[in-house]
Design goal:
Chain lengths: ~140, ~140, ~140
C-alpha cells in the first residue's frame, strides 16, 4: 500500500556556488524503505535554485556560473530593487530562469537519476545563507 | 490512508503581469483536509507561466518583467511566427524559460512555502486572457 | 485505492530538435487504467530537456530554437568545458534554463494538458542520441 513521508534538508551555503545534495536525498529515500515511488523536492527560497546537472567535470558548473553571471550581471542598472544588495535582484532572476522544485521517480530503492545527473542547490547570493529543502516521499 | 482530489482554478488576466494565486490554492488544500501531502499545479497554456517568487516588495516582480522584456523584446525580428501578434512568440519563449507546472509539499495542512514565497500566474500576453490551472492534491 | 506504476520511454533523436512524446505518455496513462491521478516525467540526461509547448504551428518551435541558438551560441568563447564539442556546454546551459522533469495531472483517463500543449523532448546536442524518460504514474 502507498505511504508517504516528509523531511527537511538544511544546507549552509558559503555564498554563490553549487552544493550537491544527491547523497542527503538518496539517504532519505533509502531510510524510507520505498522501492518504487516519487520524491518531490521544494526549496523554500526565492534567490537560490534546485538544479539537476552534470556531476562529472566541475568545469561544467563553473561554465554555468559564467553564463548566468554574464546574462544577469550583478549591479545591472536595469534593476530598481537594489535595497538588498547588487546581487539580490540577479539572484531572483536566476531563480525564475531555473527552478525551486523537482519531482524525481524512485526506482530500485533509489532516485531514478541518470548516471551523470547530480542534484545541486545553487546559491545565487554572494553571502552565506541557510537554505531549507522540504522533501516529500511517496511510495511502497 | 492516502487519498487524492482534483480541482480547477480559473484566472482572468488583464494582460501582461503577475497574478497571485497562493490564496486560492491554499484554500483548496484547507478544504481537502490533508495535513501532509503533495500539491501539483499545472497551467494549461503555452504563453503564460506559473512562478514562485518573492511576495514582499512588488518592485522585484517589476524588475523580473523588465529583465524578461529586455531579454526577449516584443517584435524581435528574429521571430518568424508573427501571425498572432508581436507579443506572442516572446510569450512562448518566456514560458519555455520558466515553468507551467509546480510540485509543492503540503505540511501542517497548508502549502510548505517559504515565508517570502508566493505563487504567481505570470501572464505574458499583452491582452487579457482566461487561464486555467489544474490542481492535483494528494495526502492524508 | 491509489496505486502506482513506473515505465520507461526511449527516444532515439537525430540531433538537435523537438521530438513529440505526448502520444507515448498518453498511451501509458490509458493502459494504467487510472481515471484521475498524477504523471511525473523525468529525463535522465543533462544536455536535453522536457518541454511543454505549442503543438500547432511548427514555426513556434523553430523560433524557440532560433532564440536559444542566439542566446547561447555554439562555440561561445566564454566556455572552458569544450572537450565534448562546441555544442556540449550550450546544451547544458539550455537544460539548466528549461527542465528535465514535469508533473502533469491525469483527468478523465488522460493527461490534463491544454488543447495546444504538447510534450516534447528537446534534444540540444547536434548529433543523434538515445534518451531515456522515466515515467511515474499514480492514480485510481
Amino acid at each position: 500500500m502507498l505511504r508517504q513521508s516528509q523531511h527537511e534538508v538544511n544546507v549552509a551555503t558559503r555564498g554563490r556556488g553549487f552544493y550537491m545534495i544527491t547523497g542527503e536525498i538518496d539517504e532519505l529515500v533509502r531510510k524510507s524503505g520505498f522501492k518504487t515511488g516519487l520524491a518531490t523536492l521544494h526549496l523554500q527560497h526565492t534567490s537560490a535554485s534546485l538544479l539537476i546537472q552534470e556531476n562529472a567535470d566541475p568545469e561544467v558548473r563553473r561554465d554555468l556560473e559564467r553564463f548566468f553571471s554574464r546574462l544577469i550581471p550583478d549591479g545591472d542598472r536595469l534593476f530598481q530593487h537594489t535595497c538588498e544588495g547588487d546581487d539580490d535582484m540577479p539572484a531572483h532572476v536566476r531563480t525564475a530562469l531555473t527552478a525551486v522544485n523537482l519531482g524525481i521517480p524512485i526506482a530500485d530503492g533509489q532516485l531514478a537519476l541518470g548516471n551523470w545527473q547530480g542534484i545541486y542547490l545553487w546559491e545565487h547570493r554572494t553571502h552565506a545563507h541557510r537554505r531549507r529543502v522540504v522533501v516529500h516521499l511517496l511510495g511502497e
